Amino acid sequence: MGRFSFLLSMGSVTLVTIGTLGCYLLAMLILGRSLSKESFGYVTLWVYALNVLGAASLLGFPNAILRHYPRARLTGAQWGRVLPKLAFQSLIACSLGAWVFHLIYDLPQFETLLLFLAASTIGFTLLPITILQIFGRFALAQGLYTLWRVGMLVGIGACLALSLDLHVRQVFIAIALSGFLQAVISVASVLRHPQGTESLPLRPLLPDAGVFASLFVAAMLLLRLDAFFIPKLLNFEALGTYSALSFLALTGYGVISLAVGQVLNPKLANREPVPLKKLTLLLALGGLLIGSVLALTSTWTIPFLFGDKYEGDFRLVVGLLSLVGVLQVLYAIPSSKVGILGSKKLLRLYVPLSLSSLVVDALLLLWLVPKFGMRGAAGAAALTWFWRTGTAWLAARKLSPN
Asked: Where does it live in the cell (predicted)?
């Protein structure tokens, strides 16, 4: 498959992601306008915890499967035997993770239970969508993986239509139910494909899976570590404001980053040619231009989107967060290349480099946030992503040209 096919695949995934992400953004805009800053910050923390636990739930096995087994074996695999094993694993991992968040942030028990249910079902969906990607169903896979965002909007809309007071618990219930529905539909979509006879032992994948799990958790925490620190170093009201700024500055970059990763992984696994240098240059220049516009216009776009309670001059914070978004997009390219094509030795070197970013970010947050507030959090994120993206490109250069 050539360049046109690659761009077509990336475009279709991007369109689907924009649709589901649009539902999520609309839901968050409604919440930002309807809830207090403190409640909005709490919803943000809960959703971020959901994303982190979901990323850790399968312990890296989907990507390890892609890396370890050839395509011919994957298309003829007995997927019906793999799904239950990893579903049980997701339940165990997410139950432990939800308990940890309960201890750290003193979450109410029922909301902790909802966090467990949502994370385990949404996280498990990563396996069936990986299978769908193997069969070339990229847009369907991305749509199913983000279906819970649509359910979140539907739940909020139902509360408003029934003239009910909107509370955070109603939002969490809608997400948990949507996650369950998402998992059921994803598994049903996989089982519609003919089941082969090839077995896929998981035990030989443990070393690679451990590497990928470390990378995934580190990546998810880096995307959200500032939000986890702000409630402890400042308060939930500050997190509510910071979350509104982050949604403005980072959303578009998140769409492109997801699309790049979703399309690159299977194509690199199949050793298909991909124009990485041109893609990198295009993403960098376009991202910097968009970030400048977002920062300059933020003084009126933030109150327009989230309400008058968010008025203020946040141009510096939005500019720094936009730079973070550009770096996140650029990071998706070398991380995909290293994850799929890198040797075991390179992967094991890459893990401590990736985890070191967490240490850097945590230290910067502890130093800068008490002194500079939200500006310190955004500055810490930008410096950390310079480090993370730079080390990823250095690791990718050790590979032969694609």
From this structure: Cell membrane
